[in-house]
Amino acid sequence: MAYTKQEILQLSEQELNSLMKEARESSWQTFGKVLKVHYLGEKFPSISVTGTYCAQNCLHCNKHYLKAMKAITHSGKLVGFAKKLASKGGTGMLISGGYDEKSQVPLDDFLKSITTIKKETNLQINIHTGLVEKEQAKVLFEIGVDVVSFDLITDTEVINEVLKNGKKGQDYIRSYKFLVDAGLKVVPHICLGLYYGSEKGNFEALEVALEFNPEIIVFLGLIPTKGTGMAKASVVQPEIMAKAMTYVRMNNPAIEQSLGCMRVRIPQYEEIAVQSGINRIAIPKARTLEYAKNKFGLKVKRIDSCCAL
Length: 309
Fold this sequence. Notes:
The protein has a single domain, classed as Aldolase class I (TIM Barrel, Alpha-Beta Barrel). Helices cover 39% and strands 16% of the residues. The protein has eleven helices and eleven strands. It has an eleven-stranded parallel beta sheet with strand order 3-2-4-5-6-7-8-9-10-1-11.
């Protein structure tokens, strides 16, 4: 039975618990009682093609998370790094970076290198694009990119106040459509609580994602980060996470759901994700794995890649 966002948001605690049970049983019926746990790291590193540079000053990030990525700002060095990674048993890489003035990750100079990596290694490539134009999407498909991770934000007010890039929700939907139409596997990433920890814009973005029928949806959560404009913001309430995951499951049980790595490490988030029938979790706590196995009898499968693959 499908549910509207209004119906989900109005659920009482008892009704939500009942629907979460239905959602996880639906998940197990479709995907089996398996929890895939994903780990980025030595075998699957994150690359920033801009180093720590970003033309935007988003309130929730302010370039902070670029510091944790490996900086490879010259295309010629990317192939050598990739071949060395492959020779050591690496499985792939996330290629990302800061945004330029068009809210795009500037990938053009790296396309030839990515083509070579796909031809000469078995590495999987996940690209974080930002906004794209139609021809850019076609090129990414032609060179063999395995998956595109796309931050789907559809509320213009959220974009204006948090990203401050002058774009509109339709700009993000347009780019998403270009990527899908090009034939790429596009995995929408929904940051719950992006608007100061509230649910504003979250379910509207999920509505759009469901229209495109993706294979996977990745849920993220606002991290109030020191040195950013949202350092003192609230984290999203666990109830909203439960309702978002349940909403997707009840409207399309064939979509895999993942709890991505960009989130506050609150154990309750991970337990609620398991209760909701989550299929994948990036870098979970050990106690979460024990909870999944002991409480629900799930089989845990480790995968050395980002959770969008």
